[in-house]
Predict the structure.
Amino acid sequence: MKKNKQTEIQVKQPFAKVIRRHWMLLLMLLPAVIYVLVFSYMPMTGIVMAFKRYQRSGGIYFSPWNGLNNFKALMIQGKLGMVTRNTLLYNIAFIFLGVVFEMGSAILLNEIIFKRFKKVAQSFMFLPYFISWVVAGAIMYNMFNYEKGIVNTVVTALGGGRIDLYNTPHLWPFVLIFLKLWKQTGYGSVVYLAAITGLDQEMFEAASIDGASEWQKIRYLTIPSLVPTMMIMVLLAIGNIFRGDFGLFYQTVKSSALLQPATDVIDTYVFRLLIDSSDYGVSAAAGLYQSVLCFITITVCNGIVKKIQPDYSLY
Amino acid sequence: MSKTAAAAESHHVSRDLKNVNILGIILISIFALICVLPFYLIIIASFTSETFMIRNGYPLWLDLKNATLEAYKLCLKNPGAILRAYAVTGSATAVGTALAVFMATMTGYVLSRKDFQWRNGFSFFFFFTTLFNGGLVPWYLLCVRYLHFKNSFLALILPLMFSVWNMIIAKSFMAGIPQSISESAMIDGANDMRIFLSLILPLSKPLIATLGLFSALAYWNDWYNCMLFISNDSMFTLQYYLQRMLGSAEAMRIVAEKSGMALTSIPLESMQMAMTVIATGPIVLLYPFVQRYFVKGLTIGAVKG
Amino acid sequence: MKQRKLVSLLLAAAMALSLTACAGAPAAGSSTPAAPAAETAEEAAEPAAASDAFAGLPEKNTPATPVYASPDMYTIDLSKKVNINMYMVGDTPNDWEAVCAEMNKYLEPYNTTFSATFLSWADYTTLYPLALQGDDCDIIYTASWCFLGSESAKGSFVELTDDFIQQYMPLTYRYQDPDSYIESLQGGKLYCIPQNMTEASAKYVAIRKDLADKYGIGELKTWEDFANYLTTIAEKETPESGIYAYAAAGENKELWDVWRQEFDERSAVEDDYLCLGYLFDGSDKAPAVEDIQLIYDMDVFKDFAHEMKRLADAGVWSRSALTNSTTKDEAFGALQSAADAWNTSLFPYIDQAEQTEGVECACYDLGADNMAAAAYGAGGLAIAEDSQNPERAAMVLDLFENDTYLNRLMTLGIEGVHYEMIDEDHYRELEKSKDFAIWVTAASWSIKNYKLTDGAMDPRRQAIEEETEARGVASPTRTFSLDTTEIADYVTAIKNVMNDYVPMLQLGLVDDVDATIAEFRQKLDDAGMQIYLDTFREQYEAWLAAQ
């Protein structure tokens, strides 16, 4: 357990004293700690499978040692770098644009004075969350199908040329980012909305009295007040920055080799690698690879945030 | 105070509030329409015959000539089973959400207490579990061999009960509640649990609503845990029940191709659509009720002093 | 003092030993009469007991000579009641409870109960490997497409050695054709019992006869006829009614199979897209290793790729065919396309299409002048390594494979309820058959001993099946199996490259066929193709020398 570096206000307390003073807090932590120990830390030991060749007789812990061979299996095709890059770039776009859209829609929704409109709009915005990627992929296919898709019917009716989406790799980053924002904004904006409602109204009233315009209030009061929430959401997202949303990248793209350089992420790559073989060692190795990269990234980012403003850091 | 009240107070809507509203309404409307359009297509498709869809793709409006209840009939073939699934999912969601919100807020509260030296250490302890994961097999073995989860209601509740994500959100929110409240209560002799239950929680309604929503959705949508641990079909959750029908049809295709055997054919596309409508219907209808916690402005008026 | 301690220790040990021995004895005493005779009398008595039990059995297991087992055929201890659980893939048939009850009635004399767990199609890819980690799996269905390779490599199945089969599965030992095992061997070892008959399979084409008549196209005999039909439809019918000539989706494996039939191309190794093939001349002499090539290097494939491009450019299928998820069969059944290709599984879709008035279909065997491949198929029922009672499981497996009553319960259902026998080789489905369809259980696919045909079968189908069986010739390389455990990673990499390139080459959706094939070949080399070919060469020559 790390002994945290305290600010100048508090003095480092010896172990026993902390327990005596905060025994109730520790008790309140106990259920979560037990839960996490049982359900997360115990299975975590299975990571050792990344270095083993799984044999039923040895189980997870006693199977023969396979060194780094499982990792080599990931690298044999030479695609690992490309899919890692894709995963990272897509996630960066998702995080950045996600904040813009989620925070933006929360702020706008909050500003609107027509209650009915707000309620209806918000419900609508939430709907995509319920549509699974399988269904979304099917709808997409029906819309963008070269011969029969709705989109192409409309485009040709307007005199344009048909869009062959499924054979044009470079369009896909835009499509995928759009899809992700479409699905996620409603859900993600909830956190920001809740944060806004928790804001102290007094400062807004004071600003109004001082003659601030609505835009100024948003810019100088609302947004800065949301920064802590935003930082937490961003940091949480960074903790998963090397993990791709499997459903999004698999169900909408389906399996076209042509589109892979633009759309393949680590998760889909590993899925195809293991589709017939259920090799636990290799899938554990892939998971470990992603975990290590995420860990390095979040440590760096959290460290930076801690230096600037410790209150915004995750830990 | 809500914007409406403020506007009313000033007896007229200020010009830039109006501008912001216009911009907001336009942008939000566009986005909301884009969000709802696919759902509209889904509903129509769920009432369209499979052959029509194979031939013409998804229709833009419901042509009564081609309308059919076939997909729904198939999904609802066994009404008893569906009702049971609703019941199972409903109870799991209710119990699970209550537990999940309680655990997340309680843990988040402890970690938000600035006087608790070890809060960063514990935060890391929890957060670490979101980074590293042993994978499906160890977890499955743990649950089945040692915890005996198979066909137990616990299997639907426990895996989702504590979410580090939710806890961190709770921690962040509660850190925003001024320390002075807790401190004055402590001086008055209240213990931490009391402070948490009687003071902090009531002040955290938006947080509870948020976490409640997220947890409820997680439980409602979960089919994975059901797939892994439940084989008794009277305990199937709603999503799993429908997912099975859907996934079966799809997987059968793949297997049929590989093994060279034809397995019975089921209308797939329209079934998927009907499934989505059946599974999401109730929650979508429930959502407006939860919404008011986000739309209405709640002040921390009691903070003063 | 020390001596006393030693003596008392020895006494204690002796007592413990005798206790365990006693614990063993009562069990032997209370078992069925034949068992102690078999156990105590050992070598001398066994043949005598065996021949008594097996005396009434026929020479071969045929419809005319059914086999009925009895408990005294088995040498294991049947005194404890044990439940054997079988895992199968597929959905639970509605009437499973009833059928299972009948099975259990029959198994009473064996002091065994039977149950089954069905892994739904939706989940089996995740649940299958996990099931083998659980503690309630005794027998499980496996196949080349159903984890046979990967689970054998993990040691999840009991190895079925000759001794094991002889001792615990006497009926299988007696009746199962040893040839049948070879196709299912993994690394030279046997892990499952496959079906006991070869089946000739061929790929056929189905067309819309009404449309063929409309455009004056007659019977299809060769590939050229068929291609002509497709392009005619694409040219004339598609602009009019919008239906495709052939609604290919995802890949074009069936047309490839139809094409290569005409060249009598056979595979020495076939693993999804990874095939090493040769041109078969009908003799039972195995080809020389030089004659076996990666099929993508062969002219058979190159010509095929060019032909497919020709068809794709003519609009026979959609340009989005790679991502299309509706299968060509569903499309054909829904009258969305004018042709289909597959094995006899075409017929359900033909039936579906013909339900519409005015639609008539025809099914042609373009390879009628060629030989059809006859094989046992890789896969069958295996015993899980984690099973608590592997010998008992072996017995149950033995019974399902060979005992006519149990076999038919599993494959056809309850006689008189789900089916009835018209004559020895033909059955007819009864009204309740939809609750337990014939051949619905996964196990039934691998316990076939002879051919039973549906009396009410579409006569076209019957004709085509008979004609195919008649020209079935087994490949001489059938008994060769490639052990890839050492190069497993390369195989995965190679297969991934193939998954990337083969579908689009098969669908002709590439700009330059030769350039793409060259690029494909290069990528294969990068993935370790040469290592694979060298491994194959080595093993094949060794196998050849041993023939």
Summary: Chain C is about 45% helix and 15% strand. Residues 1-50 of chain C have pLDDT under 50 and may be disordered.
